[in-house]
Amino acid sequence: MTCRETKSLLNPYVDGELDSAGSLAVETHMRGCAWCLTDVENLHGLAAAIESGSLRFKAPARLKRCVQAAIRAANPEAGSSVFNWRWVSVLASAVLTIAVTLNGT
User: Along the 105 residues of the chain, how does pLDDT read in single tens digits?
Assistant: First the structure.
């Protein structure tokens, strides 16, 4: 297997998406190729950083307010609607609770 062929399989290899034959071919190539081995080690490091959350950040509260304002601006009728899904779910919960209570007695 050449470096070019191996490099096209490195991401699926690191993600565990290759079958046994594909994984074996990549591993065999890496035993004799320091460049591809370094690439795999770098990909493993990147995957570990992503899984640990060290590449994540908490968005500022101002961003949430800006997004909500943009949504309200794009759909101004939504905020003033009497038919609000939140109230519908509260009403449905109340009806279900009453029905269960009356049915159980």
Answer: 899 999 999 999 999 999 999 999 999 999 999 999 999 999 999 988 888 877 777 888 898 889 888 888 887 666 555 556 677 788 888 888 888 888 765
Rounded Cα distance, 23 and 82, in Å: 59
Which residue's entry shows tokens 């794009």?
74
pTM for the full model?
A: 0.51
Task: Quote the tokens at residue 91.
Answer: 């009403």
For residue 83, is it left (φ>0), alpha (ψ between -120 and 50) or beta? Answer: beta
For 11-98, strand residue ranges (E) read: none
